[in-house]
Specification:
Layout (H helix, E strand, L loop, with lengths): L2 E6 L6 H14 L3 E7 L13 H10 L4 E5 L1 H4 L3 H12 L5 E8 L4 H11 L4 H11 L5 H11 L12 H16 L4 E6 L17 H10 L2 H10 L2 H9 L5 H11 L2 H5 L8 H11 L3 H8 L6 H13 L3 H7 L6 E6 L4 H9 L5 E2 L10 H21 L9 E2 L1
Parallel strand pairs: 1-2, 1-4, 2-3, 4-5, 6-7, 6-8
Antiparallel strand pairs: 3-6
Length: about 400
């Protein structure tokens, strides 16, 4: 089988995602859709509203064929390593020929041209990049600003809109890996990436998480029109994950040097975070006092999540260059034998049962242990025990 992949979070899986899966099949002509999905913690530095196994089952019931887990060190990283880690895994699978992603604008050629420009190694570009990063600005933001200032042949919208930025990073990672994967941009429908307004059919995941937390009759009505029925039923049972206090407590307990090793931490930000946590022991209020144009809310949340989960700059870099694994969360039961056989044709071991754990090399083993730790912590937060070695057949 030939697969078109999609890198996702499905937090929660909604009508826009179901529409995208349909478009992927229509536009790619693939035999199957392979999702690589964040686990229990997301790129915004938050705990997912449903457990990773439940979200993976929602995806398969909504049209996916198989869902692999994106290892947590990449899942809670900024755009560069979020994309690089996912593509690193996908590029090792000969059965994956395309990578689809949602976008605000742009064609395949636009994304590839812009991605090539980000790989510029000229002295002028490097000098501008260093200058832009002096004040602690993230690498991707500093790099994109340097490109625009230099008048590079890029589409500015692909460096400034949330989904476009990720799409550009996916294409950049494909080019860096020399992967035989073709990008497939698919225009978003409905609410924007961070749009908090609720629409009739295609609201953003941000807005829908807000509606789940709201729980009012009006919110439930919006959820019913925006979520597939199987996800809507789960949303009615959802309870808040008490993650924020735990993340704040972990920050207070950590040494400054440990926080400084978090991938998104820079320029002594660990000292400000630690000091503010002591003086303002409220997660949301503390972050509100620190957030700025330089330090976005998502970046600050990621630092706290990275510290909470023990994710460091050094390990993320190592894992992105090392053989890893395919952790299967859910698979379509009617085609499971063929799908698992296709995955076994990749360069890495398939983790579908506990005995597969012994196949992992050192870096992969360390990475997988971080996934296990993240799963254990999420289980403690939710009070629901799950088996990390489980695979759901849907």
């Amino acid at each position: 089988m030939k697969y078109c992949a999609v890198i996702c979070e499905y937090n929660p899986f909604h009508n826009g995602h179901r529409y995208q899966l349909g478009e992927i099949r229509r536009l790619s002509g693939c035999d199957g859709v392979l999702c690589i999905m964040s686990g229990n913690f997301t790129q915004r530095g938050e705990a997912a509203i449903f457990h990773k196994y439940e979200r993976a089952a929602h995806a398969v019931a909504g049209g996916a064929d198989v869902v692999l887990e994106l290892p947590v060190p990449f899942a809670v990283s900024a755009a560069e390593y979020f994309a690089r880690g996912a593509v690193h895994i996908l590029a090792s699978l000969p059965c994956v020929g395309e990578l689809a992603f949602g976008c605000e604008s742009g064609t395949k050629e636009d994304f590839l041209r812009t991605a090539r420009a980000t790989l510029d190694e000229s002295k002028q570009f490097k000098a501008a990049l260093r200058e832009n990063m002096k004040d602690g600005t993230s690498y991707v933001r500093a790099r994109n600003a340097a490109l625009l200032a230099a008048g590079a042949d890029v589409d500015e919208a692909l460096l400034t809109s949330p989904n476009n930025i990720l799409g550009t990073e996916y294409c950049r990672a494909i080019l860096q890996a020399g992967a035989a994967i073709q990008p497939l941009p698919i225009p978003r429908v409905g609410g924007g990436y961070a749009d908090t307004a609720l629409f009739k059919d295609f609201s953003s995941a941000t807005a829908l998480r807000g509606a789940i937390a709201d729980g009012s009759r009006k919110a439930k009505k919006a959820l019913k029109s925006n979520l597939p029925e199987h996800v809507y039923r789960a949303a009615l049972r959802a309870t808040p994950v008490p993650y924020e206090k735990a993340a704040l407590a972990a920050l207070v307990a950590a040494e400054e040097q440990a926080v400084a090793r978090c991938p998104d931490c820079a320029e002594g930000l660990e000292n400000r975070l630690k000091s503010m946590a002591r003086s303002t022991p409220d997660y949301a209020e503390m972050l509100r006092k620190i957030v700025s144009k330089r330090y976005t809310l998502s970046r600050l949340r990621r630092i706290l999540a990275q510290n909470f989960l023990g994710v460091t700059r050094e390990t993320v870099t190592e894992y992105a260059q090392s053989p890893l694994y395919y952790k299967v969360l859910a698979v379509k039961s009617s085609a499971s034998e063929e799908i698992l056989r296709d995955l076994s044709g990749g360069a890495y071991p398939v983790i579908a049962r506990k005995s597969d754990y012994s196949k992992l090399a050192k870096a992969a083993l360390d990475c997988f242990r971080t996934d296990v730790r993240a799963n254990d912590l999420y289980n403690v937060l939710t009070g629901v025990a799950t088996n990390e070695y489980e695979t759901l057949f849907v």
